[in-house]
Amino acid sequence: MSYDTIARIAEKHNARILFDESIARYTSFNIGGSCDAVVMPNSADCIRELVSECRAEDIKYYVFGKCTNVLISDNGLRGVVILIGGDCSDIRREGDCLICDAGASLSKICTAAKTASLSGLEFAYGIPGSAGGALYMNAGAFGGEMKDVVKYCDYLDSDGTVKRMDNADMQLSYRHSAFTGTDKIILSVCFELHPGDSNEISEKMNGIMCKRREKQPLEYPSAGSTFKRPEGHFAAKLIEDSGLKGYTVGGAQVSEKHSGFVINRGGASAEDIKKIVNDIKDKVYKDSGVMLECEMLIVE
Fold first, then answer.
1. Which of 130, 145, 175, 188 is catalytic?
2. Residue 225 annotated as catalytic
3. Is 175 considered catalytic here?
């Protein structure tokens, strides 16, 4: 398939485009095969034109943020991969709000909030995702969630128009939003915060990061928590109770530090990760009757 028109759109916007590019280097798992075309858009207009062309020409396309909650096939992906990341990550302040491009990392946004003496986002410090991805799945940690701080977002609808959605219409629940499983694409997110003391904000952020380093295997590539929290249970405890802590397949392992994380200890393939995930689900269900559900997205 020819991607000449996609290349012309990227060139028009001075956006980066790479062909036959391994996706592994862009994922937090460091896993994934070669993709036909990878584009890093640098504006909402660039995203809109790329998606419009793909839809018009029936070109398969995928839209990702920082790829921190995704497992991509060892065979890569056919079609166009649109990575909304650092080239689309502007942040601006309006009163007590931070309006952030979808590709802005949560760490960058949290640091901007601290600098502006705006509180409310401390819980998100260290979550390895972007504004768009975090809203897409209503990411949360340490008692906070995106639903607590998002005021509105701008998004590209399935008809190709840019629209705005307020918090009340986002259907934000545990690891779910109105965008989950749809072809709507988040372009920017407005976080509504409140004035605070920058030193106190910094202390909270540092404390949260210390807890992350203490409890989570941040020294290894992973996609974060592998499974959603089952009602009335903790996934990590169920996995550990089933004797799977440290369980290894190829280069993949159930973390010995935190059983809720499947990590890439070195050279793991997507098939290694999938085998561990399926083995965990089978063993936990056999032992406890609880069927675990993946939090990360598996794309093949």
1. 175
2. yes
3. yes
Burial of 290 (0-12, 13-18, 19+ CB in 10 A): middle
Question: Do 66 and 155 have their domain in common?
Answer: no
Same domain (yes/no): 46, 103: no
- Alpha carbon 144 to its chain centroid, in Å, reads 17
21 occurs within a structural domain = yes
Burial (CB < 10 A; 0-12, 13-18, 19+), residue 25, is exposed
Q: Are residues 96 and 211 in the same domain?
A: yes
* 227 part of a folded domain: no
CB 106 within 8 A of CB 127: yes
In the numeric block, the tokens 């380093």 are attached to: 213
| pLDDT tens-digit map of 214-227 | 999 999 999 999 99
Question: Do 79 and 100 belong to one domain?
Answer: no
Catalytic residue among 49, 122, 145, 295: 295
Q: Which domain holds residue 149?
A: 89-215
- Residue 43 annotated among the catalytic residues of the structure: no
**pTM for this prediction:** 0.95
Q: Report residue 217 as tokens.
A: 């295997």
Residue 1: pLDDT above 90?
A: no
- Of 73, 225, 242, 255, the catalytic one is 225
Q: What is the pLDDT of residues 246-287, one digit of tens each?
A: 999 999 999 999 999 999 999 999 999 999 999 999 999 999
When pLDDT is averaged across residues 38-58 and rounded to a whole number, the result is 97
> Is residue 74 domain-resident?
yes
